[in-house]
Amino acid sequence: MKGQAQNQNLATTLTKLFNAQLQLINVLSFFFLFGCGLATGVILSSYLSNISFSLHVSQFSFSTTAPSPALIKLPPPRVGLKEYLKVPAVKHDMDEKELLWRASMTPNIREFPFDRVPKIAFMFLTKGPVLMAPLWEKFFKGHDGLYSIYVHSSPSYNESDPESPVFHGRRIPSKDVLWGNANMIEAERRLLANALLDIANQRFVLLSESCIPIFNFSTVYTYLMNSTENHVESYVLEGPVGNGRYSPRMRPGIQIKQWRKGSQWFEIDRALAIEVVSDRKYFPLFQKHCTGQCYADEHYLPTFVTMKHSKRNSNRTLTWVDWSRGGPHPAKFLRTEVTAEFLERMRSGSDCVYNGNHTNTCFLFARKFWPNALDRLLRFAPKIMHFNK
């Protein structure tokens, strides 16, 4: 009995000790977990505080260095003379009055505030395609930026013949033209006005579909750019096909002593071109009174230039023609008539004055040539004129 009691007391004591240790472990575990939780909370809180601070700093930094796009005031882009100098497309929609008005604008300050390369405006007055286009292609090759091309052809021409590249897209808005009629002058003024829209164009040459160049581009460019005169043929011719075409109804604006005749094919500088498109005094007299057998294209420009700008005119044309066969039209040359000797005679068979000095280089262009002469022209001309290859 006594032994049993001792055993029971020992068991009870062990149980108490075990329970005490278990309670101690629980207490320690609680404190451990509490400590871990506290540490985790402190760390997490600190981390979140840093993130918030960083965001505030970033927002402050962004607000000080990158304001809202609505608040940014950028300087306006520089326009300068870009819009003024922009050349309208050849196929513009200006009517006649708008075109002539715009073309008549001219600055009174001679010095240009920008770099430019002077160009020659080649103006072709045609019924249809430019018949000698392949030869002109060789003439223009390698000289981009030194010339402009404008073509006035009949509105009925539907471009059924394929255009050569250099003439592609160069047709201006055109109207019907009758030979000898005052609307021929209207077409010339239309060509000049379109060419004047390009401020770089400084010399202006009127040509037909049957014209050819008889010198290479470099020679033509140098000759025209260095010239101190315009080239409008103008002379007095007595008789029915000269002074006989004058109408007294043109008085007092134009007197018989001022009446002149000359070739339709001219070469003029920019200043005179502006005067021609701006003329509202003399040209209306030709429209009203130079009709029928008057042939305005042979009289208007020679008379106008003699009256207003004779001091700067050479009184000669730069386009060679042959009137030796008689009749109302100059000779038109066939394929068999085109030879190297013939071309040389056109180039150097005359005598004239250029810038005050005598020279035998009096013509730069020639007409008229039949389309069947093109193959021989392509054979001889490049060798004689030294076109670029």
TrEMBL record:
<dbReference type="InterPro" id="IPR044174">
    <property type="entry name" value="BC10-like"/>
</dbReference>
<keyword id="KW-0812">Transmembrane</keyword>
<keyword id="KW-1133">Transmembrane helix</keyword>
<keyword id="KW-0328">Glycosyltransferase</keyword>
<keyword id="KW-0808">Transferase</keyword>
<dbReference type="InterPro" id="IPR003406">
    <property type="entry name" value="Glyco_trans_14"/>
</dbReference>
<dbReference type="GO" id="GO:0016757">
    <property type="term" value="F:glycosyltransferase activity"/>
</dbReference>
<dbReference type="Pfam" id="PF02485">
    <property type="entry name" value="Branch"/>
</dbReference>
<keyword id="KW-0325">Glycoprotein</keyword>
<protein>
    <submittedName>
        <fullName>CORE-2/I-BRANCHING BETA-16-N-ACETYLGLUCOSAMINYLTRANSFERASE FAMILY PROTEIN-RELATED</fullName>
    </submittedName>
</protein>
<keyword id="KW-0472">Membrane</keyword>
<feature type="transmembrane region" description="Helical">
    <location>
        <begin position="24"/>
        <end position="48"/>
    </location>
</feature>
<dbReference type="GO" id="GO:0016020">
    <property type="term" value="C:membrane"/>
</dbReference>
